[in-house]
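REQUEST ID: PR-0412
SUBMITTED BY: lab tech R.K.
PRIORITY: routine
TASK: structure prediction, single protein chain
INPUT:
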Amino acid sequence: MNILETAPISIVRRNHGIEHATVHILTARDPSLHLIGKADTTGFNIYGQVERAELIDAAQQALARLQAGEAALAVHPRCGTNLVVAGLLTALAAILALGRKPSIKKLPDVILATTFAAFIAQPLGLALQTHVTTSPDAMGARITGIREQFFGQLQVQHVDIEWE
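STATUS: complete
OUTPUT:
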C-alpha cells in the first residue's frame, strides 16, 4: 500500500495541486500578485489581496483544467517544498564542506558547496512536488465555497473543497 494514497495524505496532496493550479491562473491574470497558499484536508488558504469573485473563478477554472488533464498546473516553482529542499540541501552542503574542524579557510568550499546545492535544489524540489507533495488528481472534487478572514491587514481566504 502506498502511504501517499491514504487519507488524509492523499486529500492534502490533491488540494495542494488545486491550490497550485489556482495560483498559476491568478498570477497569469495579474503577475504583480503576491500570494501564499497552504493546503489542508478541507481545501486551501490563499494569503494575499485577491478579490473573492476572482479567487472563486480561478479555483473553478483550475479544478476544471486539472480534471481535463493539465497535470502540470499542480506543480509550482515558488512552492514551499522547493524552499524546504533548498534549505535542507544547502545546510547539509555547508556542514559537509566545513567538516569536523570548521575554519574560515574553508569558506570558499562552503560557498561552492552551497551554490551547487542551491542549483540542484530547484529541479529536485519540482520532482518532489510532482511525486510526493502534490497530486494533479482532481476527479471527484467540488469547490463548495470560500471563507474569508482578516488578520490585521492580511486577507486570508479558505477555498472549501469536498471530495466524492
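NOTES: The mean pLDDT is 96.
REVIEWED BY: pending
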